[in-house]
C-alpha cells in the first residue's frame, strides 16, 4: 500500500471519495506511505457531485491528470437564470483567464475511478470493505483498529489520520466535534435523465417560479442532471431520517423510499419551465434534504477533517466536491514536509487557518443562493427579479461572480505562510499561481533551455522557485527558442537560489525563466508582472508563498523559508500566528 519504500508509519485516510483519493494522491506523489480505506465493498455507482470547477482542473493539470477528465467530461460555458419565464441573467465563463473557462460536468463515479486509477500508478490501492471501528490518540500518537468484511481485525499506529468519511463522519462524532448549521425545510428531487431542449448543450439553466426551483445541467449526449426543490414527496410522506442525500451527504437512496418517477419529473418540469424540455430515459433519481453545516475546527491533534466530514451545504454553485479536493491538496504537501522532517509541526496548524474561512464563505454563499433562487415572495424574490438583472449588467460584478464560482478567486493572502513585496503587476503572495508561457533559461534535472509553461514546470511534490530575469535584447534573441543563449546570471538571485536550496533540501526545484513570445499560454509579463529581476516561490499546491525582487527581499525570503519550512527555524515577528 505504500507509495514508496519508507520506514515511517503510514498516513491513514478514511473514506475513498474524491477528497480521500485526492489526499492520497498528494501524499503518494511526495513518496509518503498511505493507507486508504473505505467500508463500502465497491465504489458508489450513483452520480452525486457532477461539477468540476476551473481551479480544480488547473490543479489536476499540475498533477498531470487533467486530460483524462477533459476526455470524459462535458463543458458548460454559460449559466442562465430564469424567473417566471424571463431570463434574468446569463453568466458566461469565456472571459476567465484560465485554460479552462467553463464548468466541466462529469459523474462523480467517473471522477473517483480516474483518481483511483492514477493512485494505482503510485502503487496505492483502495482497501475496500475495511472499516475503522475504534481509534484513540494520546502522547504516543494514534492507535486505530480496522475490521475487514470477513471479520478480521488489525491494529494500526498511523502517523496521522485524515477523516474523509462523509457527512455522517464516525471520526467527527467520536472526537465530539459539533457540526453546526441548519437543514433546509424543503424536500429536493434529484434525477439523471435524457432531455431534449432548444438551447445550446454547453449552457446550464436554473428556473425559479412560484412553484419552486428547477435546475438542468447538461452531461453530454442529451443526458442531464435535474435538481428541483419543493418536490412532491412519495405517498405517505418522507421523514428526514428516511431521506437519502446523495447530492450532499454522499449516500445511495434507501430501498424504503420510493424514488421519483419519470412522470413526476415530467410534471414538475411542465409546471415550472416555460421552455421546451422533453425528458425520457430516467437513469436514477432520489429525494433528499439540503444541509448547511460545518465543523468548528479541522485539526484535533494528529487527526484532520476534510470534505463532507468537515462541511456540507447546498449543491448551488457546484462547490462541495471541489472544496474537498482542494482541501486535500492543501493538507497533503504540509503533511509530507512534516513527515520528512523538513518542517515544524506548526505548519499543520495552517491547514485550519487557511481552509476554515473558505469553508465558511462557501456555506454562506451557497445557502444564500439557494434561499434567493427558491423565494416565492418577500425581499429575496424582489432581489432576484428586480435587483439581480441590474447587478448582472455590471461588468465588475460579473467578473467577481465568474471568479467566485470557478474558485479562481480562492486565496490565502492573510495566511502566515505568505511573504509579500510589491511588484509591478503579477499575483500577490497567497494567490493562485497563474499559468504563463516562458523561455526556460535553465532548470533542475538537467532541463535544457527552451519554451515551456509554468504549469508544465511546476511539480506538486515540490516547491517551485521561479527566478524571473530580464529578457534578451531583441537583436540578440535567438531565432531558435531552444538555443542555449541566455541572459547573464544575476548574482543576487543566484545566491538566493543557493540559500533556498540549502534551507529546503530536496523540496524545491529552481527555474530561471524569462519572457518569450508565441502561442500556448499568456505572456509572462501579463501573468507575473514586469519587474525584472524578481522571484516567485510557488507552494506544492499551486499557490504563491512569496514574491519579491533583489535586495532586502532576498533576505526576507530566506527568513520566511527558515521560519516555516525548516525544523530548526524560529518564527519572525511578522510571520507569527
TrEMBL record:
A GO MF term: FAD binding
UniProt KW Flavoprotein keyword: yes
Pfam family, one: FAD_binding_3
Keyword Magnesium assigned: no
Keywords per UniProt: FAD, Flavoprotein
Domain FAD-binding: 10-365
Cofactor: FAD
Cross-referenced InterPro entries: FAD-bd (IPR002938), FAD/NAD-bd_sf (IPR036188), RIFMO-like (IPR050641)
PANTHER family: BINDING MONOOXYGENASE, PUTATIVE (JCVI)-RELATED, TRK SYSTEM POTASSIUM UPTAKE PROTEIN
The protein, known as: 2-polyprenyl-6-methoxyphenol hydroxylase
Amino acid at each position: 500500500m505504500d507509495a514508496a519504500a519508507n520506514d515511517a508509519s503510514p498516513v491513514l485516510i478514511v473514506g475513498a471519495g474524491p477528497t480521500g483519493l485526492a489526499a492520497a494522491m498528494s501524499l503518494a506523489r511526495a513518496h509518503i506511505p498511505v493507507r486508504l480505506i473505505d467500508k463500502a465493498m465497491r465504489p458508489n455507482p450513483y452520480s452525486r457531485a457532477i461539477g468540476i470547477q476551473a481551479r480544480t482542473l488547473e490543479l489536476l493539470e499540475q498533477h498531470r491528470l487533467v486530460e483524462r477528465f477533459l476526455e470524459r467530461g462535458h463543458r458548460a460555458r454559460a449559466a442562465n437564470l430564469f424567473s417566471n419565464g424571463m431570463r434574468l441573467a446569463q453568466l458566461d465563463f469565456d472571459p476567465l483567464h484560465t485554460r479552462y473557462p467553463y464548468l466541466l460536468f462529469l459523474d462523480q463515479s467517473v471522477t473517483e475511478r480516474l483518481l483511483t486509477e492514477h493512485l494505482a500508478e503510485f502503487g496505492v490501492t483502495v482497501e475496500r470493505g475495511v472499516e475503522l471501528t475504534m481509534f484513540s490518540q494520546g502522547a504516543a500518537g494514534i492507535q486505530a483498529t480496522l475490521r475487514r468484511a470477513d471479520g478480521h481485525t488489525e491494529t494500526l499506529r498511523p502517523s496521522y489520520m485524515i477523516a474523509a468519511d462523509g457527512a455522517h463522519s464516525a471520526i467527527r462524532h467520536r472526537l465530539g466535534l459539533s457540526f453546526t448549521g441548519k437543514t433546509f425545510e424543503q424536500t429536493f428531487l434529484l434525477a439523471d435523465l435524457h432531455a431534449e431542449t432548444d438551447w445550446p448543450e454547453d449552457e446550464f439553466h436554473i428556473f425559479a417560479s412560484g412553484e419552486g426551483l428547477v435546475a438542468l445541467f447538461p452531461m453530454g449526449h442529451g443526458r442531464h442532471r435535474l435538481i428541483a426543490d419543493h418536490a412532491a414527496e412519495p405517498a405517505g410522506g418522507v421523514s428526514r431520517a428516511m431521506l437519502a442525500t446523495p447530492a450532499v451527504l454522499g449516500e445511495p437512496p434507501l430501498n424504503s423510499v420510493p424514488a421519483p418517477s419519470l412522470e413526476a419529473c415530467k410534471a414538475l418540469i411542465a409546471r415550472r419551465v416555460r421552455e421546451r424540455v422533453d425528458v425520457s430515459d430516467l437513469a436514477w433519481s432520489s429525494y433528499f434534504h439540503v444541509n448547511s453545516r460545518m465543523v468548528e475546527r479541522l485539526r484535533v491533534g494528529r487527526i484532520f477533517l476534510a470534505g463532507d466530514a468537515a462541511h456540507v451545504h447546498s449543491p448551488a454553485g457546484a462547490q462541495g466536491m471541489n472544496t474537498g479536493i482542494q482541501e486535500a491538496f492543501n493538507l497533503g504537501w504540509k503533511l509530507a514536509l512534516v513527515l520528512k522532517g523538513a518542517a515544524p509541526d506548526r505548519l499543520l496548524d495552517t491547514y485550519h487557518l487557511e481552509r476554515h474561512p473558505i469553508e465558511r464563505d462557501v456555506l454562506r454563499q451557497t445557502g444564500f443562493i439557494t434561499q434567493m433562487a427558491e423565494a416565492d415572495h418577500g425581499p429575496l424574490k424582489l432581489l432576484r427579479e428586480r435587483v439581480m438583472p441590474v447587478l448582472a449588467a455590471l461588468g465588475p460584478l460579473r467578473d467577481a461572480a465568474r471568479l467566485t464560482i470557478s474558485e479562481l478567486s480562492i486565496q490565502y493572502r492573510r495566511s502566515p505562510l505568505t511573504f509579500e513585496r510589491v511588484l509591478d503587476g503579477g499575483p500577490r503572495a497567497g494567490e493562485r499561481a497563474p499559468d504563463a508561457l516562458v523561455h526556460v533559461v535553465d532548470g533542475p534535472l538537467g532541463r535544457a533551455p527552451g519554451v515551456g509553461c509554468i504549469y508544465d514546470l511546476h511539480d506538486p511534490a515540490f516547491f517551485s522557485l521561479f527566478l524571473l530575469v530580464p529578457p534578451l535584447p531583441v537583436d540578440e534573441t535567438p531565432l531558435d527558442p531552444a538555443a542555449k543563449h541566455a541572459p547573464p546570471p544575476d548574482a543576487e538571485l543566484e545566491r538566493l537560489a543557493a540559500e533556498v536550496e540549502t534551507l529546503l533540501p530536496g523540496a524545491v526545484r529552481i527555474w530561471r525563466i524569462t519572457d518569450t513570445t508565441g502561442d500556448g499560454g499568456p505572456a509572462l509579463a501579463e501573468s507575473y508582472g514586469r519587474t525584472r529581476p524578481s522571484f516567485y516561490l510557488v507552494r506544492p499546491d499551486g499557490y504563491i508563498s512569496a514574491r519579491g525582487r533583489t535586495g532586502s527581499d532576498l533576505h526576507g525570503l530566506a527568513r520566511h523559508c527558515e521560519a516555516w519550512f525548516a525544523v530548526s527555524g524560529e518564527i519572525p515577528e511578522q510571520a507569527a500566528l
